[in-house]
Amino acid sequence: xxxxxxxxDSYDSFSFNLASLCHQSLPSPLIHIIKNDTLTLPQLLPxxxxxxxxxxxxxxxxPTHAQDVxxxxxxxxxxxxxxxxxxxxxxxxxxxxxxxxxxxxxxRVVKHGxxxxxxxxxxxxxxxxxxxxxxxxxxxxxxxxSPLPPSTSVFIHTHTSAAETTFTSELExxxxxxxxxxxxxxxxxxxxxxxxxxxxxxxHPESVCTSGGGLQVLQNFFKIAEEWNxxxxxxxxxxxxxxxxxVGAPWPRARTALSSSSSSPRTAPRKVHTTTLTHxxxxxxxxxxxxxLGVLEDDGAPFVLLDSAAAPGRFSIIACLTPHSPVLSYxxxxxxxxxxxxxxxSSSSSPxxPGGSSSPGGARIQRHELGDTQDVWSWLKDYMDExxxxxxxxEVPFWGGLVGCVSYEAGVAGSGIPxxxxxxxxxxxLRPSTAQGRGExxxxxxxxxxxxxxxxxxxxxxVIDTHTGRTYVQSxxxxxxxxxxxxxxxVGEVADKPIGTGLISAGESEATVSAVGKPVVTLPxxxxxxxxxxxxxxxxxxxxxYELCLTAxxxxxxxxxxxxxxxxxxxxxxxxxxxxxxxxxxxxxxFSAYIRLQPTTLLSTSPERFLSYSRPTVANSSSSSSSxxxxxxxQKQLCQLRxxxxxxxxxxxxxxSPITRAEAEHLLRGSAKEVAENLMIVDxxxxxxxxxxxxxxxxxxxxxxxxxxxxxxxxSVVEGVWEGECGHADGEGGRGGGxxxxxxxxxxxxxxxxxxxxxRSMEILQALEDSERGIxxxxxxxxxxxxxxxxxxxxxxCFKYDDAHAAVEEPPSSSPSSxxxxxxxxxxxDIRADDFSGDATEEWVIGAGGAITALSDPEAxxxxxxxxxxxxxxxxxxxxxxGR
Length: 884
Hints:
Layout lengths: L3 E6 L5 H11 L4 E6 L5 H4 L8 E4 L9 H4 L2 H5 L9 E4 L1 H9 L3 E18 L11 E12 L10 E4 L4 E4 L5 E8 L7 E8 L4 E4 L13 H17 L9 H7 L22 E2 L1 E6 L7 H7 L10 E5 L7 E5 L7 E4 L5 E6 L15 E2 L5 E6 L6 H10 L3 E2 L10 E6 L1 H7 L9 H7 L22 E6 L1 E6 L4 E6 L5 H16 L9 H11 L3 E3 L3 H16 L5 E13 L4 H5 L6 H12 L4 E7 L2 E7 L2 E5 L3 E4 L12 E9 L2 E6 L11 H9 L2 H22 L3 E11 L3 E15 L14 H8 L7 E2 L1 H11 L10 E6 L4 E5 L3 E5 L39 E12 L5 H16 L8 E2 L1
Protein name: aminodeoxychorismate synthase
GO cellular component, one term: cytoplasm
GO molecular function: 4-amino-4-deoxychorismate synthase activity
């Protein structure tokens, strides 16, 4: 019978990495994963006879807090009739220690993402194990109790004999580390129970940077477990199907597989019409091409550019929107999506779509109610299934599809955290550092009035390959060859213009700023930000998190762009496009974007890819069926994440000589803090990928240093491969297109913007930060009709909300009790026009922050946050306009 493992997840962000290590340690194991508060002990006891062993994973918090450990203490207190082998990690070791009298203490020097040499005796789970260099994520440890009286005896049963022996404790230390005496002294790294099959390690064997103490230690444990089970007559019983529902299906299928809920018949794929042009000079003239395609015509009309303005970016995508291009918006907590066709495109005489309505401004609006078993992601999956396409150029990653942005709060809510409440435990503990005047449970101020999903479906596009000089004009509209040809002509005309036409020079940039007036900049309050850093560090010391990505917002106000001619016309000058061109020129980045989808305008020069997933490909299965040798077809899809942690300014203070690559590599890779930040997020991302893809996840590159316009950054690359039956979305009965969308859904918000463990970190950040983040630290990118996608983290960005947008009437069928509080108003409570001088203002929001660890220096963290702000403020001509 296959070994069956029960893994207890304490709401950690490394649990699937531990599951992957177990998968490598055993032949074809069945691994079931449950939260530590999923089942009560009476529910679990009847199931234990079906499991070879239990793995108790790591987690935030303390073994003395019942809400942090759930059922774990009960497992260490199992009656003999239900006893089975248990292996604990981190919180699992601390819980074992506390259960049998060990003393819990705080480390004087916290070890989060630090690597230590582990001293062991080569016995038990360390048999045959050589040198161990282990990753530590802990701020608490246990010390064994003082020796028992000499008369105290413990009867033990070893693998070879039974004996009555005097011991100092029921627990035995198997390994330790020697921290400096001025730090933590001797710290226990592994324990075993002398009479029960309980083993545990304090370090993280599943971390990508643990060497020597991972796979072999788990293999030794499972060998010991099998021997103990045999000696005690434990024979595994089959897990009855009616009981499987309690522990879920075995991982890696233990995830929510949102299959299509659409009842419509499967439609034939659309065809992609493409013409390929070769214009090498066009790569440097993308802004001019956008202007030729209409970006300047109206600052209120939808327009989208995903812009690879610097290496390692490659493809730039210009969405050529039509009068029928639907903008899809969704607000977390509601039961419907809103589909809008822009009034800027639509004639007032155009009929509204069935079931829709028209706003006074002419915008056509439809509301799509979510089904009882649907969420926004499954609705979007159905939407894309019905619009899939084929036949485009294989080398082009985008043929058409959804383009836009998803907010940070969409990911927070998807993690099960209410947006309108603060966890009392953290709110109370962190209250001295939080902003005053916000009541318990009150909806936080900021972007809560606006959409968390803002996407447009693109049928026509121009894609520029900046590496090869090729340009692809594409359409998935039937019979659209004439448009493809006409747009190809426009592309050629732009490419043939003299170099320099249409570009903004430094002088023009300053003249534009002068013409509209200097901006008013309001930085975050420095004292409050530093207090929040210290409060975050206290949460780290208490074991609540390993890393917290603290952020704050800066406000930039301009006099609104206006002229007598614009007041007389129906359109207005494109001030946002001018700002984007200046931002692009001063801070070119591989994942830049200009997204103008009413009422949101986003300007981004993001250097960080969050997630890309390839178009699914068809290949022969790597393994044939056990009943036949005939190979069968499978789909494969590659997913890649590129987290950035570690930033260094290229300019050298007081010198004209820039910092070289060699110096940057030495400074970044030689910094224990920077490497620890990167490592924690890499381990978190491996977990996020593993939750959907299973054990096929690897780290392609760790802590590589990449050059950008103004900074050096430390970047890691994590990849995972999905394989599923042809014709299935997830190998279990879907409708095609791969699982990249589900990896995106399960990975939001980006771990590089939360910290680890992700859920607990987000709860703490909610108590610390004064407002919702909105678009900032969410993601921007595309979901292609061919099944691929590419999303960047929304950083080094700024955004604004327009005051005027179409009102949406509630449909008669809507129930007020089923809807979230209305967020229809576009005026932010955080940014008010009367905060600034002048009759009219245009208000932009810039988010910035940094990863707070136990090693963080508050002043240095403030300076790093300001450094990140400067890359955006510089393009606004606002560096000398900063105020507090």
